[in-house]
Protein backbone atom coordinates (compact mmCIF):
# COMPACT_ATOMS: atom_id res chain seq x y z
CA UNK A 1 0.00 0.00 0.00
CA UNK A 2 1.22 3.48 -0.86
CA UNK A 3 0.51 6.22 1.69
CA UNK A 4 0.20 9.74 0.28
CA UNK A 5 0.50 12.68 2.67
CA UNK A 6 -2.36 15.04 1.85
CA UNK A 7 -1.73 17.44 4.72
CA UNK A 8 -0.28 20.93 4.75
CA UNK A 9 2.02 21.69 7.69
CA UNK A 10 1.39 23.95 10.65
CA UNK A 11 4.33 26.30 10.15
CA UNK A 12 4.93 29.40 12.23
CA UNK A 13 7.35 30.67 9.59
CA UNK A 14 4.68 30.68 6.85
CA UNK A 15 2.25 33.51 6.19
CA UNK A 16 -1.10 33.21 7.99
CA UNK A 17 -3.77 35.91 8.48
CA UNK A 18 -3.95 34.61 12.06
CA UNK A 19 -0.25 34.05 12.73
CA UNK A 20 0.92 30.86 14.38
CA UNK A 21 3.00 31.28 17.54
CA UNK A 22 5.30 28.33 18.19
CA UNK A 23 7.42 28.43 21.33
CA UNK A 24 9.84 25.63 22.19
CA UNK A 25 11.27 24.77 25.59
CA UNK A 26 14.61 23.08 24.98
CA UNK A 27 15.43 19.86 26.89
CA UNK A 28 17.48 21.99 29.32
CA UNK A 29 14.62 24.44 29.80
CA UNK A 30 12.33 21.43 30.21
CA UNK A 31 14.47 20.19 33.07
CA UNK A 32 14.31 23.55 34.85
CA UNK A 33 10.55 23.74 34.22
CA UNK A 34 9.98 20.24 35.61
CA UNK A 35 12.01 20.96 38.74
CA UNK A 36 10.08 24.18 39.35
CA UNK A 37 6.71 22.44 38.84
CA UNK A 38 7.64 19.58 41.21
CA UNK A 39 8.63 22.09 43.88
CA UNK A 40 5.54 24.29 43.47
CA UNK A 41 2.84 21.65 43.14
CA UNK A 42 4.20 18.66 45.06
CA UNK A 43 6.77 20.14 47.46
CA UNK A 44 9.46 17.90 46.00
CA UNK A 45 12.97 19.27 45.61
CA UNK A 46 14.86 17.98 42.59
CA UNK A 47 18.16 19.15 41.13
CA UNK A 48 17.83 19.21 37.32
CA UNK A 49 21.59 18.71 37.05
CA UNK A 50 21.06 15.15 38.32
CA UNK A 51 19.53 14.34 34.92
CA UNK A 52 21.74 13.08 32.08
CA UNK A 53 23.37 16.16 30.57
CA UNK A 54 21.11 18.24 32.83
CA UNK A 55 18.30 17.78 30.32
CA UNK A 56 14.72 16.50 30.58
CA UNK A 57 12.19 16.79 27.74
CA UNK A 58 11.50 19.47 25.18
CA UNK A 59 8.05 21.07 25.13
CA UNK A 60 6.18 22.82 22.32
CA UNK A 61 3.61 25.52 23.00
CA UNK A 62 1.47 26.66 20.08
CA UNK A 63 -1.10 29.40 19.63
CA UNK A 64 -3.19 28.91 16.49
CA UNK A 65 -6.76 28.55 15.25
CA UNK A 66 -8.36 25.18 14.57
CA UNK A 67 -8.49 26.26 10.90
CA UNK A 68 -4.71 26.40 10.54
CA UNK A 69 -3.24 23.70 8.36
CA UNK A 70 -5.31 20.80 7.05
CA UNK A 71 -8.50 20.57 9.10
CA UNK A 72 -12.12 19.40 9.20
CA UNK A 73 -14.94 21.91 9.64
CA UNK A 74 -17.80 20.56 11.78
CA UNK A 75 -21.47 21.52 11.32
CA UNK A 76 -21.31 23.80 14.37
CA UNK A 77 -18.83 25.99 12.46
CA UNK A 78 -21.48 27.06 9.96
CA UNK A 79 -24.01 28.60 12.34
CA UNK A 80 -26.24 27.94 15.35
CA UNK A 81 -29.47 26.78 13.61
CA UNK A 82 -31.83 28.85 15.79
CA UNK A 83 -34.98 26.96 16.77
CA UNK A 84 -33.57 23.61 15.66
CA UNK A 85 -31.40 20.94 17.18
CA UNK A 86 -27.91 22.27 17.84
CA UNK A 87 -25.38 21.26 15.15
CA UNK A 88 -22.72 18.76 16.16
CA UNK A 89 -19.22 19.77 17.18
CA UNK A 90 -16.16 18.08 15.74
CA UNK A 91 -15.78 15.71 18.69
CA UNK A 92 -19.30 14.30 18.20
CA UNK A 93 -19.08 13.34 14.53
CA UNK A 94 -19.20 9.72 13.30
CA UNK A 95 -15.69 8.42 12.62
CA UNK A 96 -16.87 6.51 9.56
CA UNK A 97 -17.41 9.82 7.75
CA UNK A 98 -13.64 10.30 7.64
CA UNK A 99 -12.42 7.06 6.10
CA UNK A 100 -13.46 5.69 2.73
CA UNK A 101 -13.12 5.90 -1.04
CA UNK A 102 -11.99 9.29 -2.34
CA UNK A 103 -13.14 10.87 -5.60
CA UNK A 104 -10.84 13.59 -6.93
CA UNK A 105 -12.32 16.23 -9.21
CA UNK A 106 -10.12 18.48 -11.33
CA UNK A 107 -10.82 22.19 -10.81
CA UNK A 108 -7.44 23.53 -11.90
CA UNK A 109 -7.30 26.61 -14.10
CA UNK A 110 -10.70 27.77 -12.91
CA UNK A 111 -9.42 31.16 -11.72
CA UNK A 112 -10.60 33.09 -8.69
CA UNK A 113 -14.32 32.89 -7.94
CA UNK A 114 -16.94 30.15 -7.83
CA UNK A 115 -17.24 26.70 -9.34
CA UNK A 116 -20.76 25.74 -10.38
CA UNK A 117 -22.65 22.47 -10.59
CA UNK A 118 -22.13 22.17 -14.40
CA UNK A 119 -18.36 21.91 -13.86
CA UNK A 120 -18.82 19.12 -11.32
CA UNK A 121 -21.21 17.26 -13.60
CA UNK A 122 -18.71 17.54 -16.46
CA UNK A 123 -16.08 16.04 -14.16
CA UNK A 124 -18.38 13.13 -13.30
CA UNK A 125 -18.66 12.42 -17.02
CA UNK A 126 -14.91 12.78 -17.60
CA UNK A 127 -13.92 10.31 -14.87
CA UNK A 128 -16.87 8.03 -15.56
CA UNK A 129 -18.18 8.08 -12.01
CA UNK A 130 -20.79 9.96 -9.97
CA UNK A 131 -19.92 10.22 -6.25
CA UNK A 132 -22.26 8.68 -3.71
CA UNK A 133 -22.80 7.96 -0.04
CA UNK A 134 -19.68 6.87 1.81
CA UNK A 135 -17.34 8.57 -0.65
CA UNK A 136 -15.27 11.65 0.13
CA UNK A 137 -14.97 14.19 -2.69
CA UNK A 138 -11.88 16.40 -2.97
CA UNK A 139 -11.31 19.31 -5.35
CA UNK A 140 -7.86 19.76 -6.86
CA UNK A 141 -7.89 23.50 -7.60
CA UNK A 142 -4.12 23.98 -7.70
CA UNK A 143 -4.34 26.41 -4.78
CA UNK A 144 -1.89 24.38 -2.71
CA UNK A 145 0.91 25.66 -4.94
CA UNK A 146 0.44 29.08 -3.29
CA UNK A 147 0.47 27.77 0.30
CA UNK A 148 2.58 29.86 2.67
CA UNK A 149 1.99 33.10 0.71
CA UNK A 150 -0.65 35.85 0.98
CA UNK A 151 -2.01 34.82 -2.44
CA UNK A 152 -3.10 31.47 -0.99
CA UNK A 153 -5.85 33.33 0.87
CA UNK A 154 -7.05 35.47 -2.05
CA UNK A 155 -6.48 33.57 -5.32
CA UNK A 156 -8.55 30.39 -5.55
CA UNK A 157 -11.93 29.02 -6.51
CA UNK A 158 -14.67 27.66 -4.25
CA UNK A 159 -18.06 26.01 -4.71
CA UNK A 160 -21.30 27.90 -5.16
CA UNK A 161 -24.51 26.80 -3.42
CA UNK A 162 -25.83 24.61 -6.24
CA UNK A 163 -22.51 22.79 -6.61
CA UNK A 164 -22.37 22.15 -2.87
CA UNK A 165 -25.95 20.90 -2.74
CA UNK A 166 -25.37 18.68 -5.78
CA UNK A 167 -22.73 16.75 -3.83
CA UNK A 168 -24.85 16.67 -0.67
CA UNK A 169 -27.86 15.40 -2.62
CA UNK A 170 -25.69 12.54 -3.86
CA UNK A 171 -25.05 11.51 -0.26
CA UNK A 172 -21.54 12.97 0.16
CA UNK A 173 -20.82 13.91 3.78
CA UNK A 174 -17.27 15.26 3.47
CA UNK A 175 -16.13 17.65 0.73
CA UNK A 176 -12.46 18.58 0.54
CA UNK A 177 -10.33 21.18 -1.18
CA UNK A 178 -6.68 22.15 -1.41
CA UNK A 179 -7.72 25.79 -1.07
CA UNK A 180 -7.99 27.90 2.08
CA UNK A 181 -11.78 27.56 1.97
CA UNK A 182 -14.47 25.55 0.21
CA UNK A 183 -16.04 28.94 -0.52
CA UNK A 184 -14.47 31.53 -2.80
CA UNK A 185 -12.01 34.00 -1.21
CA UNK A 186 -13.44 36.56 1.22
CA UNK A 187 -12.32 39.38 -1.07
CA UNK A 188 -14.10 37.88 -4.08
CA UNK A 189 -17.29 37.15 -2.15
CA UNK A 190 -17.52 40.67 -0.72
CA UNK A 191 -16.77 42.29 -4.08
CA UNK A 192 -19.61 40.36 -5.73
CA UNK A 193 -21.95 41.17 -2.85
CA UNK A 194 -21.18 44.91 -3.04
CA UNK A 195 -21.77 44.81 -6.78
CA UNK A 196 -25.05 42.87 -6.74
CA UNK A 197 -26.50 43.12 -3.22
CA UNK A 198 -27.31 39.41 -3.60
CA UNK A 199 -26.98 37.70 -0.22
CA UNK A 200 -26.83 34.27 -1.85
CA UNK A 201 -23.19 34.95 -2.80
CA UNK A 202 -22.21 35.19 0.87
CA UNK A 203 -20.34 32.00 1.82
CA UNK A 204 -22.84 29.66 0.13
CA UNK A 205 -20.81 26.46 0.67
CA UNK A 206 -20.44 27.08 4.39
CA UNK A 207 -23.98 28.34 4.90
CA UNK A 208 -25.37 25.24 3.17
CA UNK A 209 -24.23 23.47 6.32
CA UNK A 210 -26.78 25.39 8.37
CA UNK A 211 -29.48 23.10 6.99
CA UNK A 212 -27.44 20.12 5.74
CA UNK A 213 -25.26 17.95 7.97
CA UNK A 214 -21.83 17.76 6.36
CA UNK A 215 -18.15 18.56 6.86
CA UNK A 216 -15.56 20.43 4.87
CA UNK A 217 -11.98 19.20 4.62
CA UNK A 218 -9.86 22.26 3.85
CA UNK A 219 -6.24 23.08 3.07
CA UNK A 220 -5.28 19.71 1.61
CA UNK A 221 -1.95 19.20 -0.17
CA UNK A 222 -0.41 16.92 -2.79
CA UNK A 223 -3.70 16.14 -4.50
CA UNK A 224 -1.79 15.74 -7.76
CA UNK A 225 -0.52 12.42 -6.41
CA UNK A 226 -4.06 11.05 -6.03
CA UNK A 227 -5.83 9.32 -8.92
CA UNK A 228 -9.36 10.43 -9.70
CA UNK A 229 -10.65 7.04 -8.52
CA UNK A 230 -9.31 3.96 -6.79
CA UNK A 231 -7.80 5.42 -3.62
CA UNK A 232 -9.07 5.78 -0.08
CA UNK A 233 -8.62 8.65 2.31
CA UNK A 234 -8.30 8.87 6.10
CA UNK A 235 -8.90 12.31 7.59
CA UNK A 236 -9.98 11.80 11.20
CA UNK A 237 -10.22 15.16 13.00
CA UNK A 238 -8.57 15.83 16.34
CA UNK A 239 -11.15 15.44 19.09
CA UNK A 240 -11.49 19.01 20.36
CA UNK A 241 -14.36 19.08 22.85
CA UNK A 242 -16.97 21.59 21.67
CA UNK A 243 -14.82 22.54 18.70
CA UNK A 244 -16.11 23.85 15.40
CA UNK A 245 -13.12 22.32 13.62
CA UNK A 246 -10.24 19.97 14.24
CA UNK A 247 -6.86 19.47 12.63
CA UNK A 248 -6.24 16.28 10.67
CA UNK A 249 -3.22 14.48 9.23
CA UNK A 250 -5.07 13.51 6.07
CA UNK A 251 -3.56 10.68 4.05
CA UNK A 252 -4.46 8.94 0.82
CA UNK A 253 -4.18 5.14 0.68
CA UNK A 254 -3.49 3.55 -2.68
CA UNK A 255 -3.12 -0.19 -3.18
CA UNK A 256 -0.11 -1.07 -5.34
Question: Overview of this structure, please?
Answer:
With 256 residues, this protein is α/β, with parallel strands linked by helices. It has 2 domains: 4-9 and 66-254, Glucose Oxidase, domain 1 (3-Layer(bba) Sandwich); 21-63, no CATH class. The chain contains 5 helices and 13 strands. It has a 9-stranded mixed sheet, covered by helices on one side. The chain has a two-stranded antiparallel ribbon with strand order 2-3. Helix 2 packs across helix 3. The termini are close together. The model has no long low-confidence stretch (mean pLDDT 97).
Summarize the SSE layout with pairings.
Blueprint: E1 2-5, E2 21-25, H1 27-42, E3 59-63, E4 71-73, E5 99-106, E6 113-115, H2 117-127, E7 136-140, E8 157-159, H3 161-169, E9 174-177, H4 186-196, H5 204-207, E10 215-218, E11 231-234, E12 245-247, E13 251-254
Parallel strand pairs: 5-7, 6-8, 7-9, 9-10
Antiparallel strand pairs: 1-13, 2-3, 4-10, 4-12, 5-11, 11-13
Protein name: Cyclase
InterPro entries: KFase/CYL, KFase_sf
GO biological process, one term: L-tryptophan catabolic process to kynurenine
Features:
nine-stranded mixed β-sheet; KFase_sf; 5 helices; 20% helix; alpha/beta; elongated; Glucose Oxidase, domain 1; 256 residues; 21% strand; two-stranded antiparallel sheet
Please report the first level of CATH classification, the CATH class of the largest domain: Alpha Beta
Integer tally of domains:
2
Would you list the SSEs in sequence order as H and E? EEHEEEEHEEHEHHEEEE
The side-by-side strand order for the widest beta sheet comes to 1-13-11-5-7-9-10-4-12
Class by helix and strand content?
alpha/beta
Overall helicity = 10-25%
What is the tally of helical segments?
A: 5
Per DSSP E runs of 2 or more residues, the count of β-strands stands at 13
Cα Rg: 21 Å
| Shape by Cα distribution | elongated
Strand content range? 15-25%
Mean pLDDT, to the nearest integer, reads 97
Give the biggest sheet. Answer: 9 strands, mixed
N- to C-terminal distance? 5 Å
Amino acid sequence: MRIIDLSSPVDAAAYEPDPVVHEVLTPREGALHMAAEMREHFGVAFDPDDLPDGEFLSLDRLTLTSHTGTHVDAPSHYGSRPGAEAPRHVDALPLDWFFGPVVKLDARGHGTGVIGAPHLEAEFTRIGHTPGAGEIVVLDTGAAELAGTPAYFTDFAGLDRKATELLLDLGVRVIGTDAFSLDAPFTDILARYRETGDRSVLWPAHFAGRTRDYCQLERLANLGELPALGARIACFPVRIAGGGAGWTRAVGLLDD
